[in-house]
Structure formats: structure tokens, C-alpha cells
Amino acid sequence: MDKKHIADLLAVLDKSNFDDIELRDADLYLHVRRGEVAHAPATKPAAVRPTNGKVVKSPMVGIVHLLDDAKKPFVEVGQTVKPGTTLAQIESMKLFNDITSPVAGTVAAIHVSDKQTVAYATPLFEITEAD
């Protein structure tokens, strides 16, 4: 893909309502995001409320999967978890890696949306520890 094609794609994005676009080709990977996404996904109602919980961060770069094979969330805000409970999976290099809870407590916030691309150390979840 040459510079003109990339410029054309960026022009289309600029005129559209999309906040994020990802393109994969045999010899090119392009990911463009416009600023901060203004809306919060419906699966994160408590994400905007700050808490004093344990933040679970991404241990790798990849794509977050919040739903299991049956298309049900691994966890939801308000759910009680124990150490080792699967919170999500991160797909990296076509491998799925479980992200588990390091503590017992309650899921206070989900900071990402399903199929969102994340970088290393991106906050994923916040868990309020049980007493």
C-alpha cells in the first residue's frame, strides 16, 4: 500500500463518524484512533466512578476479549471474584492468554471494551479487595 492509499483512507476517516479504524494487509498494519473515545460501552457503567481498588493491567499488547466462547461476559461489574478467576483473554500473535484476578473481591470497573486493542500496562479492570 502506498502513501496515496493511506492518505485516502485517512481522508475517509476524517469525513466519517468513526473514532477508530484498523486495517490489516499482507504487508501493512494500520491503526488510527481519533483522540479519546467520547462514549463508554454499555458494559462499563461503573468505569467512570473512581474507586480505591486493585488495578489489573494488561501484561502484553493485543486484543482484549471480554466474552467467552458462548458470547457471555467472563465477569461483570459488581461480580465477586477470587484469585485466579478469569476476567478476560488477550489475543496476541493468534494465542489467547487468560487474564485472571490477582485478589479476592468485587469487580468495581471494566476500563476496556470487547475487542479493543491494548498496549502493555493498559488498565483493564479494577477490583475492590474483600476484607
TrEMBL record:
Keywords for this protein: Biotin
CDD domains: biotinyl_domain
KW Ion transport (keyword) present: no
Gene3D superfamilies (UniProt xref): 2.40.50.100
SUPFAM superfamilies reported for this sequence: Single hybrid motif
Record keyword NADP present: no
Segments forming domain Lipoyl-binding: 37-128
InterPro entries documented for this protein: Biotin_Carboxyl_Carrier/Decarb (IPR050709), Biotin_lipoyl (IPR000089), Single_hybrid_motif (IPR011053)
Protein name (Swiss-Prot/TrEMBL): Acetyl-CoA carboxylase, biotin carboxyl carrier protein
Protein source organism: Loigolactobacillus rennini DSM 20253
Organism placement in taxonomy: Bacteria, Bacillati, Bacillota, Bacilli, Lactobacillales
